[in-house]
Amino acid sequence: MRLMFILLLPLLWSPLVASATPAFDAPPERSTDGGFTLNWETDTAVVLEQATGPDHADARIIYEGSDTSTVISGLSDGEYRFRLRAAEADDWADQATVTVEHHSLARAFGFFAVGAIVFLVLIGAILRGRPRD
Questions:
Q1: Which of 34, 38, 68, 124 is the 20 to 30 Å CA partner of 94?
Q2: Which of 46, 55, 59 is nearest to 93 (CA)?
Q3: Strands of the sheet with 46-51, listed across from one edge
């Protein structure tokens, strides 16, 4: 019985030693405001890298730690690539690409104009007051 326990011990121990490789959890494909949240699933600390080229030549580490998400903001138009790996690993476990395309200036001014009209109509209704009988 003791010999069987000794033989089975490595099989029982291996799931505890081997941690799950980190993986992105439904990363966004597009952003229209230059900001989004990246979520991932993992049991260990991770390293998150950001790059703009497909070869990751300009890559920089933007997060290291044991959280399971991070907020990315302030990105200009373009395509951004993110890679994720366990902190103790050498190989990247998962990658995601997000395209940032801000709203056009004409569309932004259109939203501003609609807001200004609604504001002016509301002020006019307040100043006019309720009709008196």
A1: 34
A2: 46
A3: 30-31, 94-100, 78-86, 46-51, 60-65
Flag whether the pTM goes above 0.85: no
Q: What local confidence, expressed as pLDDT, does residue 129 receive?
A: 82
User: Rounded to an integer, what distance in angstroms lies between the CA atom of residue 17 and that of residue 19?
Assistant: 6
| Rounded Cα–Cα distance for residues 81 and 79 (Å) | 7
Which pLDDT band holds residue 81 (cuts at 50, 70, 90)? Answer: very high
Q: What's the confidence (pLDDT) of residue 108?
A: 86
